[in-house]
What we know:
The complex is a heterodimer of chains A (115) and B (118). With 115 residues, chain A is an all-beta fold.
Amino acid sequence: GDSVTQMEGPVTLSEEAFLTINCTYTATGYPSLFWYVQYPGEGLQLLLKATKADDKGSNKGFEATYRKETTSFHLEKGSVQVSDSAVYFCALSDPDGGTASKLTFGTGTRLQVTL
Amino acid sequence: DSGVTQTPKHLITATGQRVTLRCSPRSGDLSVYWYQQSLDQGLQFLIHYYNGEERAKGNILERFSAQQFPDLHSELNLSSLELGDSALYFCASSVGLAGGPRARGTQYFGPGTRLTVL
């Protein structure tokens, strides 16, 4: 079945450092890929998405490129801020795999940014 | 704000009890999904409804059931509650079964209901 593997956390960075959170996936079809963010005590917010190979999703300075050849969707940000401290989830949906386009999530990566 | 609403925000109850969690999808969305987030299991898909019909089941216990009403809101019923059912329960909505090429599987999440079973 479909699966998502994320790098283990927590990741601790100083403000203005470069961020990479690795995500790889396994899927039988042609999935859409997502990054969701969960701030402390809050729900899941869609951060960015890519629906086909070579698409780049971007939002709030975060970027991720859908790499079919390496089955990856790594999240990057050039300069993190303290306000980016949260848990980041990589997820996939296989909307062509029948009527059930459920999201399959990775385990989440906690990011802590310090001054 | 995603446009998806969930009530209540917090729920504290005792073992053996039954609770109902409510979700209203974004305006125009026909699909509702329920997910459970727990420390040991992570985020797990429970069930999917589209326009009132059940479309898929995931790791949903037999003690749990759901329905989607004609106005498209959904309810998740949890019965014979156990300590291990304590978790965050999220609902999410999407435009439709696939949502077209731009949406393609995109789901928007509500703020969640935190269930504590004592």
